[in-house]
Write a structure and sequence with these properties.
The complex is a heterodimer of chains A (359) and B (318). Chain A is mostly helical and 359 residues long. Chain A contains 15 helices and two strands. In chain A, a hairpin with a 2-residue loop joins strand 1 and strand 2. Chain B is built from 15 helices and eleven strands. The chains are: A mainly alpha (359), B alpha/beta (318). Chains A and B meet through helix 1, helix 3, helix 7, helix 8 and helix 9 of A and helix 1, helix 2, strand 3, helix 5 and helix 6 of B.
């Protein structure tokens, strides 16, 4: 009797999970198609399809001209960057929430965002001055590279602080992350004070995030960093499931706890660093999406991680459609849209906290 | 694998978790790999600048002054003079946060952008798209303004009217310089950008406010500060301005002289004794377009009310 009920329960949950998977993948694909089809430049759907297929078949006639340029060099890289950044932010959020066993953890917690923000502020404000004497003209690459390195360095510092005798204390890491975040925030504020009017506006827009700068070059840098992270998810899922029992219990189960922690932090630092460097700071994706997925299919990381990736990609591509179309031909900063969607949802989550937030 | 990632995941009713996550990654990789390597496309756009996009308020202002407004199809949000510009033309957003596709959607034959227009990614996408794009350096000197006008006019195919407008502006600046030389004393001016929460934000050196104060024959007392920065109450008292200059409708909504000079920072300044608060339209004052000599003249008249500064004679020329 009991085993039949259990089997039915498991089957029900599985069915629900599969339904969620199907819906989400379909939604993601639909939004990606809409995003490639719609924009400030009006291009008929059949022409978009023709251009895309011409790219594959190599019909050169269709690849000339404004429409082809918009579809292939502006929208397509933008949608792909949105998918990658959204997926990496959401998976990072799920990893951090699993690792810290805290529903409020987000990718910023390991210092990536604050470190990247500080480094970006430094390149915006001091870049001109540092390079003034040299022959190097400020290359566009300096900001993303700086942000990426800043994120990695601050994560490394945090990891070193929290690791004693080969064991990383997540509690120490959490607290040290808050402290380092405050310090980076203060230094960013100091740089904002030193900046002129122009730099201050650059800083503001950078901190609101945008996929506007998407290009194939950018994508070719971000993809090799983010894709391995997405591919490595299955390695972590079982370990994070074990960690839900508690660190000591997971260790007694024979899980390589320290290795899981180090790998998760490394992956998050790399992927979020790359995301922030390419699209600026985009809030709420990392914290909201994993919760939504968990509410739908439960806390099993084997399903949660890949679904968070699809969910994050979906949210970001959807938000970018809004950002691009709402005030066209101008554009809203993406961070405004994700936060406008994310913040009310987050409040709703907090209100349901006592029943639903079982990580 | 080519292009077949969708059926591969959808066909199976119950994908293994590892395969599932691998498929997401691989499919992204596949799409990127298919399209990326040779997606760079260039295309020349028609050369006659009959569809101009102006990115920067001063550019819009000059184009309107040259009577070229019918050729403008889009302006940025800083293009607030003349007021028709933002009402009649499509808005391409804030000049430092442009959208490449948005600008392209206006089918511009020429984009004239001030130097600070951005972000760099959008600018490089525009040039990649074959959009003809010209950058105009930002220069706050009389010579810089004149060459700015000529450059914009030449780009828009109105070189001769632009030359005349530039010459007229230069003439006005020369006249302004003569008025300035006629001043016997120099008054000390403090430009207050905002008064949020009692925190006084002032215009220091290398700011537009500093430049216009200089042109109007005043001394900027905040020149120890770089750009627009907060200034402490004590430093304001120490700076002892004779005049406080503000933009109309900035600071708190009702910054009357009474309110302002009741503030401890200002109450003991020389400006307080005469309640010398000058409020001018921000765009007019700090726009640094063809109207700059007129704005500087008006400011001079406000700083030196007892010197009877005459209007610029050249201003009568239409």
């Amino acid at each position: 009797m009991a085993s039949a009920a259990l089997a039915a329960f498991v089957a029900g949950r599985r069915r629900r999970a599969m339904l969620a998977v199907g819906c989400l993948v379909l939604l993601c694909l639909a939004l990606a198609v809409i995003a490639i089809g719609q924009g400030a430049v009006a291009i008929a759907p059949q022409r978009v399809v023709a251009i895309l297929s011409a790219r594959l078949t190599g019909d050169p006639a269709l690849l000339e001209g404004r429409d082809a340029l918009v579809v292939l060099n502006i929208r397509l890289p933008r949608v792909l960057l949105g998918l990658l950044v959204g997926a990496s932010l959401a998976v990072s959020g799920a990893l951090m929430q699993g690792l810290f066993r805290n529903p409020l953890a987000d990718p910023g917690l390991v210092g990536v965002s604050s470190g990247a923000g500080l480094a970006a502020a430094a390149t915006i404000v001091l870049g001109d001055r540092l390079l003034a004497g040299t022959a190097i003209k400020l290359p566009f690459a300096l900001l993303p590279v700086g942000a990426f390195c800043g994120g990695l360095i601050s994560t490394l510092i945090l990891y070193l602080i929290a690791t004693r005798q080969g064991r990383t204390s997540v509690a120490t890491m959490l607290l040290a992350g808050v402290a380092l975040g405050a310090l980076a925030g203060a230094l960013t504020g100091l740089l904002a004070y030193l900046s002129d009017d122009r730099q201050l506006r650059d800083l503001t827009f950078w901190s609101l995030g945008s996929l506007g700068g998407a290009s194939w070059t950018k994508l070719s840098v971000v993809a090799p960093i983010v894709l391995p992270m997405l591919l490595a998810m299955p390695l972590l899922a079982r370990g994070l499931n074990g960690l839900m029992l508690g660190e000591a219990e997971a260790w007694h189960l024979g899980l390589p706890v320290q290795r899981i922690k180090a790998l998760a932090i490394l992956l998050v630092a790399l992927a979020v660093g790359a995301s922030v460097a390419s699209a600026g700071v985009i809030g709420f994706v990392g914290i909201v999406v994993p919760h939504l997925i968990r509410l739908a299919i439960g806390p099993d990381h084997r399903l949660l991680l890949p679904l968070a990736a699809v969910g994050g990609a979906t949210l970001l591509v959807g938000a970018d459609i809004v950002a691009r179309l709402m005030v066209a031909p101008a554009e809203l900063p993406l961070g405004i849209v994700t936060a406008a969607i994310g913040a009310p949802f987050f409040l709703w989550l907090l209100l349901r906290r006592s029943t639903a937030l079982d990580v | 694998m080519r292009g077949r990632f969708i059926p591969a995941t959808a066909r199976r009713s119950r994908p293994d978790r590892r395969e599932f996550s691998a498929a997401i990654g691989l499919s992204l990789l596949a799409v990127a790999g298919l399209v990326a390597p040779s997606a760079v496309i260039t295309r020349a756009v028609a050369q006659t600048p009959d569809r101009i996009v102006a990115a920067g308020g001063v550019i819009t202002e000059v184009l309107y002054a040259l009577g070229l407004q019918d050729r403008i199809v889009g302006v940025d949000t800083t293009s607030q003079f003349p007021i028709d510009a933002l009402r009649d033309k499509a808005s391409i957003g804030y000049v430092r946060a442009l959208s490449a596709e948005g600008v392209i959607s206006l089918k511009p034959s020429l984009v004239i952008a001030i130097q600070s227009a951005g972000p760099p990614d959008a600018i490089s996408l525009l040039s990649e798209a074959g959009v003809k794009l010209a950058r105009i350096p930002e220069d706050l000197t009389p010579e810089g303004i004149a060459s700015k006008i000529e450059a914009i006019g030449t780009l828009a195919g109105a070189a001769e009217p632009a030359r005349r407008l530039a010459a007229q502006t230069t003439e006005r600046f020369d006249e302004l310089a003569r008025l300035r030389d006629g001043l016997r004393t120099r008054r000390r001016v403090l430009f207050v950008l905002s008064l949020q929460n009692g925190r006084v934000m002032v215009g220091g050196r290398n700011s537009t406010a500093d430049a216009i104060i200089g042109l109007a024959g005043g001394i900027n007392v905040a020149s120890a500060i770089e750009g627009y920065k907060p200034m402490t109450d004590e430093a304001i008292i120490e700076a002892a301005p004779d005049i406080v200059l503000m933009m109309r409708n900035s600071g708190s909504p009702n910054t009357t002289p009474d309110v302002m000079f009741a503030m401890p920072a200002f109450s003991s300044t020389p400006a307080a004794s005469r309640k010398a608060l000058v409020a001018m339209d921000g765009l007019y004052l700090l726009g640094f377009g063809p109207r700059a000599p007129l704005a500087a003249r008006d400011l001079m008249a406000a700083i030196y009310p007892d010197a009877a500064i005459p209007p610029l004679k050249t201003a009568a020329i239409p």
